[in-house]
Amino acid sequence: MASLLSLFVSLIPFFSWPAAAASPARDGVVGVIYALGTPDLPPPKKVADALVSAGVPRVLLIDPYPEGVAAFDSTGIRVTIGINNSHIPAIAKNSTEAFLWVGTNIQQPNVTVEAVSLGYSVYNGYPDLAPLLLPALKNLHTALTKADIDVPVTTCNSYDLVGSGFPPSKAEFNKSLAATYVKPLLAFLNSTRSPFLTDAFPIKLYRSGVVKLTSTGVLNFGADESSYLTDDATGLTYSNLFDSMVDAVVTAMTKLGYDDIPVVVSGTGWPSVGASNEPEASVLYAAEYNERLVVKQNMREGTPLRPGTTPLAYIYALFDDPRNKGDEFEGNWGIWTAELQQKYTIDFNPMNRGVGGRGLPGKKLLFAGWIVWVVFFSFFCE
Ligand SMILES: *[C@@H]1O[C@H](CO)[C@@H](O)[C@H](O)[C@H]1NC(C)=O
Ligand SMILES: *[C@@H]1O[C@H](CO)[C@@H](O)[C@H](O)[C@H]1NC(C)=O
Ligand SMILES: *[C@@H]1O[C@H](CO)[C@@H](O)[C@H](O)[C@H]1NC(C)=O
Ligand SMILES: *[C@@H]1O[C@H](CO)[C@@H](O)[C@H](O)[C@H]1NC(C)=O
Ligand SMILES: *[C@@H]1O[C@H](CO)[C@@H](O)[C@H](O)[C@H]1NC(C)=O
């Protein structure tokens, strides 16, 4: 089985990508989250073909099953397998389950599996599963290693574990979870050279009032550098909350003794519809945030704390999820419709990125008491 796998499964270790920054074939560092279980969608093969046409370089597949993973056969799209929380108990208790999981879901011809992630927001969201997560990750890692599949095994954490707003230098992991859970997880990730996955939703900090914004675009703190914020402890200047959230996680890990673990943003985005008291949830702002994020990330400038090391990021989500309708925060984050139409155009290809994402002239809109700068890329890019 091992030789079969090494023959057919094309595998790219995570650590190849920072080095790839210098290579001429520049893959985009921003991908999308595709929940295979979303109802009323076209078959996975159609979705995968549309992703290829749109130049999407990476996907995080949620609730994968064999045919769903196989849809990415020979597409060249790099796949991260996202295994649901409900599988944690079985994989933790019984390593045979881990082998079966790897064999049936990950052993696919010519699918480029980039990482495997087990569980979402387990430490702060699912206390019953928290003690089982690390044993399950270890079983999965062993199963993959025995099958000669050399990919990182990790878990998707919630930014709520850090929870802090600006500045990033003040960030630390939730004290009641840090010693018991987070530190042992970091030891595992460090020893297996695997990344720490966190979501990063600037809109949550913005809505909770943790960060006050007076004049802002929805990605950056503002359209011009005078509105950027400086972290006094480090002297580093931030143009946007996305970078500051990544650096907050880097800081929190460093405070626990791990300063070298890569960060991957396993969910970020902006809703295109919200309740009537949520004017910031709109197609206009969703387009601005996601379009500018992709351009900014594909410049590969890293973050102020880790210049030159650009975290991979996944946009939540490829599709709206009708199962979450009624929950304005969850239901309307899709960048495509179920008919595979783009709600707005995101250029995932780093080679076409036109004049870039910063310092562009903007249109000033007076809106809900904020001055919001909206940049229309279509005016400046082809
Ligand atoms: C495997 O996929 C790549 C694209 O990622 C393609 O170029 C290649 O032809 C495929 N190989 C086989 C044997 O199908
Ligand atoms: C994913 O796991 C959660 C928590 O265990 C569970 O409530 C949910 O039903 C699972 N979803 C799927 C699609 O298995
Ligand atoms: C572990 O799982 C396998 C496959 O589901 C099963 O055959 C076996 O009996 C399980 N072992 C234990 C100790 O539960
Ligand atoms: C830290 O985590 C605990 C357990 O999940 C939770 O009860 C508490 O509210 C969290 N603290 C903060 C400041 O978020
Ligand atoms: C993390 O891993 C590196 C490389 O294996 C090792 O040198 C370092 O001591 C580890 N850090 C900690 C805090 O264990």
TrEMBL record:
Pfam families: Glyco_hydro_17
Superkingdom of this protein's organism: Eukaryota
GO molecular function annotation: hydrolase activity, hydrolyzing O-glycosyl compounds
GO biological process, alphabetically ordered: carbohydrate metabolic process
Keyword list, A-Z: Glycosidase, Hydrolase, Signal
Signal peptide: 1-22
Family classification: Belongs to the glycosyl hydrolase 17 family.
Protein name from the UniProt record: Glucan endo-1,3-beta-D-glucosidase
Lineage: Eukaryota, Viridiplantae, Streptophyta, Embryophyta, Tracheophyta
